[in-house]
Amino acid sequence: MLNQIIFGYFAVTMISLALIVITRKNIMHSIVYMLILFFHIAGLYLFLNAEFLAAIQIIVYAGAIMVLFLFVIMLLNLREELRKSRFAITWPIGAIFVVLSAVMIIISVFGNRFANVGNVKISDIEKVGHTVAVGKLLFVEYLFPFEVASLILLVAIVGAIVLAKKEIK
Amino acid sequence: MVSLDWYVVLSLIIFFIGMFGFLSRRNIIMMLISIELMLNAVNISFVAYSHYIGDMAGHIMVFLIIAVAASEAAIGLALVILMVRNKETIFVDGLKELKW
Amino acid sequence: MELLWEISIIVIKIVVVVSVVMFHVAYATYFERKVIGRMQMRMGPKEVGPLGILQPVADGIKSFFKEDIIPLNSDKPVFYLAPVISIMAAMSALAVIPFFDGFIISNINLGILFILAMSSLGAYGIVLAGWASNSKYAFLGGLRSAAQVISYEVSLGLSLVGVMLLAGSFNLNDIVEAQSSSVFGFYAIPQILGFFVFIVSAVAETNRPPFDLPEAESELVAGYFAEYSGFRFALFMAAEYIGMIIMSSLAVLCFLGGWTVPYYVLYLFPFLGAVPGVVWFILKLYACIFFYYWIRATLPRFRYDQLMALGWKLLIPLSLLNILITGIAKLII
């Protein structure tokens, strides 16, 4: 019973926060609501026994990515943009596309569900700690994707600098 | 015990909210934020499936998705800065050179 | 009944920790003014009460009764929210700090990561305050702070990786225990590179001099909180001092052995074993806080490009080198 109540609170809050985020006129307010949303997502991860991911969610998303957004918004002067309309004229077409793809994805998600049931018990994870469990898997079985991810990050750093740097004559 | 379907439904709803935001907002920074929203929705369903099926691979996927999201935000925001520097607008309907 | 008992114990612990920390915050300001006064051949505060001992109380009362001014063109909700975010981020990190053996509000496995997460949220308070005030000084302060905190968070996190590798845990309790059973008794010697990087980044992360670019009085008036007054200003100040206490406790717990004393000291002076652990913790904490004041009185403020160059070109490579060395050493031993 308690589980349902907690999940219901998280679900309702997260959906309303997501709606608030995409409808704010002021991007700064959007980002503040997004911050609260990230905290709720981290809470949900804790609920699903993924404590390391919850910490990463806060550190990376809230602590780095959103601060980067704030930083860029402060670099650009956006005060006069507040007076213009927030949605493009073509937003009904967007809504139609969303509904169509929603139908498609819902059919495919709930229509045929098959999965290889794994053998990782929650008690196993709790015994060694989630960090150790993720770390062992990441550095043994998924080492190659991990290296590729680090390469992507390197490319992103170099790319961002190359793109945003002013030409020095 | 909350069943897996509820998590999937929650994740789908947030995903479609993010998708609608991406397709309808004019502001390019809001479009990037909508992408983050969609990625987070996917992460929720990965973690939920992982928990219910009993396979840790979903957690690894979330880890990699977060890394990719960070690089995407860095590149995307660099593009925004470039766009504001050249076009002096952050609205995507200002970019219409290729329109005839 | 069992649950009620546990909850009441946690509530009592929270009350004790918050009141002790707030008392320390109040007297940290007094201590700071006295220490810096002495270093600059002045007396420091001495009017209110004997030796000026009541100065923090007078400051507190004054900030309570000052008029609360809201700038006309500010973004009001964000303006109200910013100091609250600041102090919330600072205070919630107190929950995972073990002050002595067994005294910790919440003994979670991810102690260090939690503190890093909360300290990265502190940036929001500063950035949002700078943006919402709608003033150019505050805005510049916020902008500087965003860049500074993003850059120094990286080296702060990386400098702690060596400690995590040696101790094999994120839990602060385990880290202290692993230290007391290690060869040197504390990690400041084997992790000397990490310790150096940690100290510099901690000073930058809490926006203290010589890295106080976000609030640089002489160029930006007071930086991000230039438009704040009265109680909201006091919240920002309290958040800064709590951040200082948290970074100092992190240094004590991760590098200086927490509430333990090295075994060889105990072997030489057995009577020191009778001193309770909390005394050692507090003494080490005071030494760290004194260090903050000392460098404030000694070093001039950095230029902005120097700050960024130091962070990206010196501290991050050094901390990566430290991780490499620690990893190799751990493999060999």
Short précis:
Chain A is an all-alpha fold.
What labels would you give this structure?
heterotrimer; A: 169 residues; mainly alpha; Four Helix Bundle (Hemerythrin (Met), subunit A); globular; C: 333 residues; 2 domains; 12 helices
Question: In words, what does this structure look like?
Answer:
The complex is a heterotrimer of chains A (about 170), B (about 100) and C (about 325). Chain A has about 170 residues and is mostly helical. Chain A has a domain of about 80 residues: Up-down Bundle (Four Helix Bundle (Hemerythrin (Met), subunit A)). Chain A has 7 helices and no strands. Chain C has about 325 residues and is mainly α. Chain C folds into 2 domains: about 60 residues; about 260 residues, no CATH class. The longest helix of chain C is centred in the N-terminal third of the chain and has 38 residues. Chains A and B meet through α1, α2, α3, α4 and α6 of A and α1, α2 and α3 of B.
CATH hierarchy, class of chain B: Mainly Alpha
Q: Structural class of the helix and strand makeup of chain A? A: mainly alpha
Beta content of chain B comes to under 5%
Overall mean confidence score, pLDDT of chain A: 82
- Proportion in helices of chain B: over 70%
Provide the fold topology.
The complex is a heterotrimer of chains A (169), B (100) and C (333).
Chain A: H1 2-23, H2 27-47, H3 51-75, H4 91-111, H5 122-128, H6 130-140, H7 143-164
Helix pairs in contact in A: 1-2, 2-3
Chain B: H1 4-24, H2 28-53, H3 57-87
Chain C: H1 2-39, H2 55-65, H3 76-92, H4 111-132, H5 136-167, H6 172-180, H7 192-205, H8 217-220, H9 230-255, H10 263-268, H11 277-298, H12 304-332
